[in-house]
Amino acid sequence: MKVAQVKENKIIVSEIDDIKLDGRKGAIVMTLGCGLCGSDIVKFRHKIVHDGAVLGHEIVAEILEINSDTKFKKGDRIVTSHHIPCGECNFCKHGNVSMCEHFKKTNIFPGGFSEKVFVSEEHLKNVAYLVPENMTDEEISFYEPLGCCIRAIKRCALQKDDTALIVGLGSIGLLMGEGLKAMGYKVYGCDLIPERIELAKKMGIEPFDFSFEVDGVFMTSGADKAIDTALKAVRAGGKILVFSSTPLSNGYPNNEIYYKELTVLGSYSPSPADLKDSFDLLASGKVNVKGLTTVYPLDKIQQAFDDTVANKIFKAYIKIAG
User: Fold this and answer.
1) 181-229 residue pLDDT tens
2) Alpha carbon of 154 to those of 49, 203, 218, 219: distances in Å?
3) Count of alpha carbons within 13 Å of 86, Cβ hemisphere only?
4) If one looks up domain 152-266 in CATH, what number appears?
5) Which residue in 161, 169, 241, 250 has a CA-CA distance of 20 to 30 Å to 223?
6) What is the C-alpha separation between 292 and 169, in angstroms, rounded?
7) Closest by alpha carbon to 82, among 114, 53, 111?
8) Mean pLDDT for each 10-residue chunk of the chain (322 residues)?
9) Phi, psi dihedrals of residue 234, rounded to the nearest 5°
């Protein structure tokens, strides 16, 4: 079967042996497509993964073979996430599910940029859903990244009628805006790229002019200027939700946090409950993701990585089958 592997600073499409169920509980699925996540870019560019690794986790797939006591059957079109918390450790009991060791160890195999993937029964029972017939593969591929946004919004815990600013209007920033709007907040946005601001405006995210301060800032960009912008825009006593990695050279803004009594939170990856909310918002149409993706075939995956890094597109979707 074909997979896209990290090899010598490139993403190369290779042939490897087919994966088989071999009596395991779970399913072998045909990957219809897989979204390209910012974390895939980071792992590739910063050499966090070894040569031969298959990236990708935002998969939409069709079940080819199944051995599982679940509602799913052969031929079903499903969407799934890749990590599952144990629900019993100290992290899980405190709501920090993405810190759970079991969460970090669980994954789909060999990775989403592959013609076939093994999805465990644990995944099928906890984080997989049957895709509604009226939804496209590209639309439902936002299931996991929207789940990340829903978790961030919940962690920020803004009050009713609070205002929110998104700093960085790439695909995850726009998705954060959709989630915030769906949950009833007034949403503003800012970015250095005019085209992003225009698209955000069409999606109901108002440009921010710094004539007032907001209750909560969602940092979906880790650039130096994004941190300065967040500190400038947030009101005294407000919140900054960090949903991005920042440069290691960045200083810690202790004085601003101290004198303005700011609450600064990080948010990383969703729980099964966050994913359920994400699925419901997408299936109901309350979150609009139409037109955000650019589709690439598997053999053009390197181009998808390059175009994403160059800010030529908002979100890449790698079409593998279907």
Assistant:
1) 999 999 999 999 999 999 999 999 999 999 999 999 999 998 888 999 9
2) 31, 21, 12, 15
3) 12
4) 3.40.50.720
5) 161
6) 12
7) 111
8) 96 97 98 97 92 98 98 98 98 97 98 99 99 98 99 97 97 98 97 96 97 98 90 98 80 89 97 98 96 97 97 97 82
9) -80, 140
pTM, full prediction? 0.96
β-pair type (214-219, 163-167): parallel
Domain ranges of the chain: 2-142+289-319, 152-266
Enter the tokens of residue 159: 């009050």
- 51's CB contacts (< 8 A; 6+ apart) are 5, 6, 7, 8
Tokens of 157: 């815990």
Tokens coding 318 = 């790698």
Domain 2-142+289-319 has CATH 3.90.180.10: yes
Question: How far apart are the C-alpha atoms of 195 and 304, rounded to whole Å?
Answer: 19
